[in-house]
Every structure is written in structure tokens, then in C-alpha cells.
UniProtKB/TrEMBL annotation:
Keywords: ATP-binding, DNA-binding, Nucleotide-binding, Transcription, Transcription regulation. Coiled coil: none annotated. GO terms for molecular function: ATP binding; sequence-specific DNA binding. This is Sigma-54 factor interaction domain-containing protein. Signal peptide: none annotated. PANTHER family: C4-DICARBOXYLATE TRANSPORT TRANSCRIPTIONAL REGULATORY PROTEIN DCTD, TRANSCRIPTIONAL REGULATORY PROTEIN. GO terms for biological process: regulation of DNA-templated transcription. Residues 278-508 form the Sigma-54 factor interaction domain. It comes from Desulforamulus ruminis (strain ATCC 23193 / DSM 2154 / NCIMB 8452 / DL) (Desulfotomaculum ruminis). The keyword Nucleotide-binding applies.
Amino acid sequence: MISRLQQIQVTVQQIAEAISSVLMMDVTIFDQHMVRIAGTGYHRDTVGQRIIGYSVGHQVIEKREEYIIADIKSNDACLVCEKQSTCMELAQLCCPILLGSEVIGVISLIAFSREQQMEIIHKGTQLLDFIRKMAELIAAKTVEKSTVNRLLFLKNQLETVLNFVAEGVIAIDNAARVINMNFAAERMLRTKFNDVLDFHINEVFPGTPIPEILRNGKEFLDREVKMWRNGRQHHYLINAKPMLVDGVIQGAVASFRLVNEGYQSGYSKEAPVAFEDIVGNSKNLAAVKEEAKKAAFGLSTVLITGESGTGKEIFARAIHFTSDRSTGPLVALNCAAIPEALLESELFGYEEGSFTGAKKGGKPGKFELANGGTLFLDEIGDMPLALQAKMLRVLQERVVERIGSVKVIPINVRMIAATNRNLEEMILEGRFREDLYYRLNVFPILLPALRERKSDIMELAGYFMQKHARAYGKDIQSISAEAEEVLLQYNWPGNIRELENAMECAVIKTLGSTVEVRDLPPKIAVTSQSGESLLQHSAEKEEILKALKKYGGSVEGKAQAAASLGISIATLYRKIRKYGLS
Ligand SMILES: Nc1ncnc2c1ncn2[C@@H]1O[C@H](COP(=O)(O)OP(=O)(O)OP(=O)(O)O)[C@@H](O)[C@H]1O
């Protein structure tokens, strides 16, 4: 193991040189294993080597004593040294480097000349006082080093843990500036920590109540915050706590999760959806529609998989309204939208008095509410393992028990589950139960991504253009050939939802009756083309300026401007800097 002195070798050498130049004598410093850590003059060349043989140094370490050796040839301590007869040193002064009661090394001041020897003879105790101070300094440096090492270790440990959790975590200092952020927070806020370090939290996460804590010191749980991003409103549930040092608020830490459109209420109130309402005639989509129609007429559980925004929910609704349960309830629950602790009672309900805060008369769960109809469980991949086991029982036995009750309630419910996750991979990682997967996957439906059905893009774009033009009372008739090319070239990672947002944004911006490239969100226009032309740059700059003029340069204004441009706030700030728009 590397010794304490070895860990700070450079510092030890510097101290040896400083002593040597002040006292005009050579210095050597070695650790408790007799390895030379530093040396000046004659001893410089053997730094890093172990001192062999039994010498005064060994005695300093063993006895933890200081030595003043006025004459090497006659001193008792030197008599035991094998090299005494050939030793070129005339006199020596040795001092242990102590860390508590442990010797971690020795400083030795050496006289090679008569004058230096005289110095040691006449001023030995003063010199020793000085060397002792230097030994204390070195010991303090080793403590400092191990403190730094420990802090680095803790920092790594903390980062590993932070980046392991699925919740977003963000920390601010006492001026509400961002000082830390984990991977999940980066993902959810679509930003990079380095891009927003030291930004005011409101610039990164507008509308969050986290700064309140700096004023009142009160922690809060499950506060809902809505934020516009990419033309879409996102809901977050936030918990936050003050960071206290010696009782003084030094900042705050918040953890949050994205509660995408927490549609907890049933769909029964909503308008029915037929397969004919699902826009798109590509071969891929037509095949899936045929499959889904077959599923609608059975009673089997359906598992819809597909990337986010591919239309899983709209398919689930079409299946329900085409099935012979269409007059029954359609009840939906997004497993990712509900805090884990509440999910069980949402699904299974509870009896009166089953836990603190339980409603009088108890509450039915979604299974009961969906009786005679369909239960749509979205984001099933986010269901915790313990609940998965309970779900499996319901699917096998077709009965539910409310929390806190022993009564068994029979249920007649068709289940449709959906996920954008790869459940088979999750099974291998032990995060999803294989038996539940097979129970759910009776009728699998795989929705293709938009990029896998390019021929649907323009049909959908036209459909959304008309829908939003109607809503905004605008007379927009067509999409220009250039805009069409851009729409077709783009990769659509956010699928149909992203296309709908893009077309809504275009409808808002279009001045005439045709959607042009400049009306599309800059992100789509830029990434669709190979290389960013000067023309695009100036168009983008103009768009940003327009948005900033419209919404104002305040933090809130910038957040709105970013939302209207379909970009994240951090990207807006980057572009403001890039185009010098301060
Ligand atoms: N083929 C389609 N025709 C018309 N609208 C569609 C079509 N597919 C999806 N949409 C619309 O696009 C949006 C996204 O679809 P939906 O919510 O069904 O996707 P999803 O796969 O469930 O997304 P997520 O996994 O993110 O919840 C919805 O507003 C939906 O009405």
C-alpha cells in the first residue's frame, strides 16, 4: 500500500528543498518503511529507493525519538549502522514525523561539511525546533490529502447513487442557483447539467416552488408543477427539503418525477374513437389496424407496445369502442403518473379506516370502476414488482380485494396494457415478472414508429394542420413543397405527438395560407437538412428575436418563448449567446 508520504511526494520534496535552502544543509525525508520520499543534494538521486541496512532512521521510527548526532564517528546510535565506517556524513539531526502516536516518516538534516557540523553542534535544539515544525506541517498535509481523498470518494459514491435513481434530483444553493443535477433530471428537463450550472432554478425549471424553501425553510411533498415544453404541458410531482449547515439554510434539494398527462379519470366521458378515426394508410399501419380490430372482438388481454407518441392510447380507445363492451366504462390509469405509494390503492381501492387519511366509506379501485368494461393500464413497465405480483393474481383469479378488506370482489374487466419499454429486456434485468408478461401478452400489438411509415407523415401533417387551423380560426390550406421535404426528412423521435406539436406551432406562425419551412419548429427545419446553412441561421435568429419580443426577456418570457419555439430553455439560452442576442 502506498504510504501517506508517498501520496504527497511532490509536497514533501518541496518542503525538503525549502528547509535545505533556509538552513544551507542537505535534507532527506523518508517514510516509515524507510523509502526515501524526498532528498536534496547527494540524496536527490535515490528518491523512491528503500534505505537498506540498520541506521539511525530505524531507531527514530522504533523509539519515536528525536536525535542530534554531533559526530557520526563516535555517536552510539551510529555504532550499530553497517555503513558507519564509509559514511560521508559528519553530523545529523533527525526528527520523526508524527500523526497522533504513529510515526509516518522521518526528516533528517545532514552536515557534510565542518561548518554545517558546527551549526548542528551549536544550534542543535533551535534547528530541531524548526525541523519539528516542518514535520508537523508534513503531517498536516497528509491529513489534508486523506480528507480530500475521502471527499472525492463520497462525491463519487453520491453521484453513483444519484444517477442510479429514477427520480430527477436537483440541488440549488442559497441564491437558488443550480449546483447539482442527476441524469434523470437532465433527461426530464431535456438539458445538460453543465449547460445550466449556476443558472437560476427558474430559468431551468420555470414555475417550480423550490426557491420558496430558501425563504421559509419548509419542506414539501408531492407538489404538482406544470411546465410548457416543446409545445406541450408537462406535469411534475416535486418533493423538496432545505439543506441546512449549522442550522442555516444553505440551499435546497428537490426530487421530482414526470407525471405525463396524469389522466386518472375514466375515458367514459370522452368521445368514442373508431379505427377509421386513426389517420394513416401506410401498409404498416393498415396491418396493425387489422390486428387490433381482431383483438377488439375477443376478450383477451391486449398488450400494445410502441415508442412514445405512436398512438398506443388512441388504439386502446378504438379497441374498447369497437368491442362489445363499448357501452361499458373505459377506465384508464397511467402507472408512471401515480406515485408508487398510491398506485396500489388506485388500482385495488381501499376500505374505510384501512390507513390514515383513508376516505370515509372507502374507495373503489380502477378494477372495480372498470367492471363490465375495459381497464387501460398505460406505462405498465413502470409498475413496481410488488404490485406486478398482485396484478398477476387478479388476472388469474378475476377477483380483487380492496386494501384493508378480506372481501373478494369478482370482476369482469378486459385489460389493455401499453408500454414504450422493452418488457423482454426488463424481464432479463429482473425488473418485470415473466409470468405477468405472458398473461398480458395474449394479444400483442406492436405500433410502428412514424419513421417506419413515412407515407403517413403527410397525411397526418395535413390532418393536424386542418385540426389546429380550425381551432385557431385560421385559413390555412396547404404545406409548401420545401416544408414537405423537411417534414419527410426529419426522424420524428417523438412520433405523432411531436408531429402534431410541430403542426400546431406551424399553424400559429403561418401568416398566409401555406405552411412554409420557416413556420416549422427550428429544431425540425435544422436537423432535417444536412448542414446548417447561413440562411437557416438567420431565419432561426429572426425567429428567436420575434419570440423574445413577443414574450419579453424576463425569465417567464424566455420560458414561454422557448415553448413557442419548441426548444428547451437551456437551448434558447445557448442560442441567445450564439447569436449575441443579450
Ligand atoms: N394515427 C393517428 N391519427 C390521429 N391522431 C393520432 C394518431 N396516432 C396518434 N394520434 C394522436 O397523437 C397523440 C399521441 O398519441 P397517443 O397518446 O395515443 O400515443 P402513445 O403511444 O400512447 O404515447 P405515450 O407512450 O407517450 O403515452 C395523441 O394526441 C393522439 O390522439
